[in-house]
Design goal:
Elements (H helix, E strand, L loop, with lengths): L2 H20 L9 H18 L2 H16 L5 H18 L4 H7 L3 H11 L4 H50 L4 H55 L4 H8 L15 H8 L13
Helix pairs in contact: 2-7, 2-8, 4-8, 4-9, 5-6, 6-8, 7-8
C-alpha cells in the first residue's frame, strides 16, 4: 500500500475504534459465541460456494494488490519509447533481450509476439484476447469477494436469532438473559463490520487495480503494434501520451503564436475608435 494510504488507514481506523470506546469498555463488544457463528458460518458457506483453489487465488491476488505496486502509465510509455528507438537502430530482433528482463507478464507476452514476427492484426487479436480473459478472471474474483461480503451480514442475523432464542428460553432467569443478549447484538455487529470494513473494500481495491492494469495493457497493445509498424518514436510518444491526463504529460502545449504562424492567421489589433 502507498504511504499516504497507510497513514490514512491508521488514522481513521483509530477514529472508528474510538467511537466504540466513547460509549463504554471495548470488552463489551467482544463475544466469542457470536464471532464463531459469523466466521464459521461464512467460511462454511464460502467453501460450499467456491472451489478451494479459487479461494486461494483470491487470497494471492489480494495479497499482491496490497504488497506489489503496479507500474505507472508514464513508466510503461517510457519503456515502449525506449524499445521503439532500439528496434529502429538495432532491428526488431534486439527486443529479445528486453523480453527476458521485463517483469510485466503482459508486456513480455506482447514482446514475444513482436520478436516472433507476428503480423499487426495477429498481435492485436492475441493481446485483445489476453485482455478480455484477464478482465473476466478479475471480475470473477470480485464476485467471490462480494459474495463473501453478503454472507457476513446474513450469518450475523443468524447469530442474533440464536441469541434471541436463548434469551426467550431463559425467561425468568436473569443470568441466562444477560448471557444471551450480547450474542444477539454483537453477531449482527460482527457481520456488518466484516462485510463493510474488509471484504467490500477488498473488492473495490481489486476493481481499481484491475482498471489500472487494463489501461496499461491497452497502452502496451497500441505501443507494440506501433513498434511493429515502425512508427516514428516521436509520433509514438505523442500517441501514447493520449492515454494520460493532461497534468501527467511531460510536454507543453503548442503556443498560440506557432498556431498562428502555421495556419497564417492574421491577428487584428483592437483600436479604440471614438465617435464624435
Amino acid at each position: 500500500m502507498r504511504y499516504k494510504n497507510v497513514i490514512g488507514l491508521f488514522l481513521f481506523s483509530s477514529l472508528f475504534v474510538a467511537g466504540f470506546l466513547i460509549n463504554g469498555n471495548l470488552g463489551l463488544y467482544f463475544n466469542i459465541s457470536g464471532l464463531l457463528i459469523v466466521i464459521g458460518g461464512t467460511t462454511a458457506a464460502a467453501l460450499l460456494s467456491f472451489k478451494t483453489e479459487q479461494l486461494k487465488i483470491v487470497y494471492k491476488v489480494m495479497k499482491a494488490s496490497y504488497h506489489r505496486p503496479v507500474k505507472e502509465e508514464t513508466e510503461i510509455i517510457n519503456i515502449l519509447i525506449d524499445l521503439s528507438i532500439k528496434s529502429r537502430i538495432d532491428g526488431i530482433l534486439s527486443l529479445q533481450k528486453e523480453e527476458n528482463e521485463t517483469t510485466i507478464l503482459f508486456l513480455r507476452r506482447a514482446l514475444s509476439c513482436l520478436v516472433d514476427g507476428y503480423g499487426t492484426e495477429q498481435i492485436r487479436d492475441i493481446l485483445n484476447t489476453e485482455t478480455y480473459f484477464f478482465k473476466l478472471r478479475r471480475d470473477d474474483l470480485q464476485r467471490v469477494l462480494r459474495s463473501i461480503a453478503d454472507f457476513f451480514p446474513a450469518f450475523g442475523i443468524i447469530g442474533s436469532v440464536v441469541g434471541l432464542i436463548a434469551m426467550l428460553g431463559g425467561i425468568g432467569d436473569t443470568a441466562v438473559i444477560l448471557k444471551a443478549v450480547p450474542i444477539a447484538l454483537t453477531s449482527t455487529l460482527y457481520g456488518l463490520i466484516f462485510a463493510n470494513f474488509f471484504f467490500l473494500p477488498f473488492a473495490a481495491n481489486l476493481r481499481e487495480r484491475t482498471n489500472h492494469e487494463l489501461l496499461l495493457q491497452k497502452i502496451i497493445t497500441e505501443g507494440v503494434i506501433a513498434i511493429n509498424s515502425e512508427m516514428n518514436p516521436v509520433i509514438l510518444k505523442t500517441r501514447l501520451e493520449s492515454f494520460l491526463t493532461p497534468s501527467a504529460r511531460d510536454h507543453d502545449l503548442v503556443s498560440y503564436r506557432k498556431i498562428r504562424e502555421r495556419f497564417n492567421i492574421q491577428v487584428q489589433e483592437k483600436n479604440t475608435i471614438q465617435e464624435a
